[in-house]
């Protein structure tokens, strides 16, 4: 049978029906929300009531708004009771309770849920605001900071609250950040109140000590409310920040006149008078503030003025009035403690502040005052315990570390104090007080280290102290330590800075003089000592400067002036001590200088003075004086005494002597004794290893030995040896006129008269003895009396030379024998002879 090509109709209809059922939308019953729980239902009703409350508040119906908020609060509390972990219920309780300003209820109901959900901002926001309103800032601020980080427009007020707290906590930078963010987020409809924000910004910039930004902010605030006393108060703060205190007072005086019933300008004006020391005006303004309103701030001001006037009982009375008006006020409690302390009632002050703490009062300032009073009462351990609490309460402030540093400073625990002040600087690197007190603690430790023989450690401490405190006092301490360690170049560098710093005195120039003297710049040292003397009119201080100048004069070779200064010291005991310590040394030095000039008698006088003064325990100076005495004895021809003195002076070897000093001294003594060969032997030994500066002296001594050998040979008639010695001397000093003259004398004795006469005539202007010898040759060899008289007349006219009286007798005798007249205008010379007779 053939199949039909069409599907039967009865089968097509069911298929279409199935397709239609599959293609149709699902039924609503399949996606119906589950029924709400009782808690959720109550939350929804609470939210509806809250919306109604907001509408009533916007319309100005405060009574209706309050009723609706209370209804919403009741519903939310029931919802939270039904489901204690509900975030929405807890958030509703917080928002409704805050609207009713029932801050304690928010904290009581919301805290547990927030603890379980710390990142939930819907809980952190109302709970943080409630804690803030209850002034529980340590709990509130971290919570509000977390909300502020979310940067949501609905949390705008959080920026304002945080800024207010930062201003209270004196954190200007943080306050500026929050206030600027507030201005960015606030709706345009709130811009009419921006003047308040700009005023707060001005206060924050004042805390930051940014006078330019502060003035700009207060100017913007003034544009919104020109006659605002508080804005004028802010502008006065800017003037004060700029150092224009007089202008600030003038501005406030005008504000007080225009707004006589406003207390704040008068209070600020009184504070300015108080700071400037005008206590009469300060008290007048404080009394006016009290009349305007018996507020805690007014009585606190009055107490401060009375305390400044050293009226501690009256100040205590005013401070206690503060606590009557506002019991538990921390500032009032601290002020009473301060007044008790000013009366010497430390124990009462401690008991009072301890009672305040036990009553629940707690603030950084209160604990700080309690610790400080304990320190002043001598209870150092308790002070440390309390101030450690301050560090825990304010870890980002230097205050606690500063107070701990003061505790340890008071007990001389320098290591611990240094650590404390160092920690304060880590927290606040620019804290001026921390730098200053760290420097002082370092200076005290340096003093102890110096006394304990740790001079290098003391210098390191003082270098660090001077870096922290660039003051004249600290420069003076560091310089003294550097002088003690003989680091003269560094001492000079430091003191040249210190002498120019504010507060520098004559003593800084005195130290600068010693630093320069140690560094080898005697002229600059003398200038500093003279300037020190000019910078003071006190005789004892001038005496100290004069002694320093004497030591500089010694180095400059002005020994006579130095001896006079050291002999005529003046009234200062310190100067007398320095002079007594240095005068023997200076006299020995002058004795050596006189010996070098050939003045043995003057050297002996100085050494006799040294013997009278004594050298104390300075064995090296005593040996040096004995050494000089030995040289003086040798110069005077007292050879056994000289040898004994030199041997004793250089046994054992002295620190001031060179290794070859003994050989040089023996060579000199033998030279003076006439033992040329032995002297030359000693000199040759010494010359093998000459010390710095000796080669020139050795060469000079070698020449002296040649001349002495020539003189001895000439006197004994050994012209050959005399000629050899003189030529050797002339080889070392070819321009020596005296050696040339004496060699001519040898030539004359050997018959080379023409050569001798030529040399004498050439040297006659420089060697007076040449005229004497020319006269002798004319009289004895050539029998020319007139020429001899003329030569001797020239010799006598020179005023110097040996045998002056004898030569005058010779001249006069020849003149009388041969009838030779004295030339017109000739005046015989009777000048003393100071030059040795030459051979």
How would a textbook summarize the main sheet?
none
**Which percent range describes the beta-strand content?**
under 5%
Mean pLDDT, all residues: 87
- Using the CA coordinates, give the radius of gyration: 52 Å
Based on secondary structure, the structural category is mainly alpha
Count of strand segments: 0
Number of contiguous helices: 44
Identify the quaternary structure here.
single chain
The rounded distance between the terminal residues' Cα atoms is 181 Å
Shape: rod-shaped
Q: How much helix, percentage-wise, in residues?
A: over 70%
Low-confidence stretches: 1-29, 825-839
Structural summary, described in words:
The protein has 839 residues and is mainly α. It has a domain of 72 residues. Helix content is 75%, strand content 0%. The N terminus and C terminus are likely disordered.
The gist of it:
The chain is 75% helix and 0% strand. It has 839 residues and is mainly alpha-helical.
Question: How would the blueprint of this fold be written?
Answer:
Blueprint: H1 9-23, H2 38-59, H3 62-82, H4 87-99, H5 103-116, H6 121-133, H7 137-150, H8 156-168, H9 172-185, H10 194-207, H11 211-224, H12 229-241, H13 245-258, H14 263-276, H15 279-292, H16 296-308, H17 312-325, H18 330-342, H19 346-358, H20 364-376, H21 380-393, H22 399-410, H23 414-427, H24 432-451, H25 455-468, H26 472-484, H27 488-498, H28 506-518, H29 522-534, H30 539-555, H31 559-567, H32 573-596, H33 600-613, H34 619-635, H35 639-649, H36 661-673, H37 676-687, H38 694-715, H39 719-732, H40 737-749, H41 753-763, H42 769-781, H43 785-798, H44 804-818
GO cellular component, one term: cell outer membrane
Region (Disordered): 29-63, 819-839
Signal peptide: 1-29
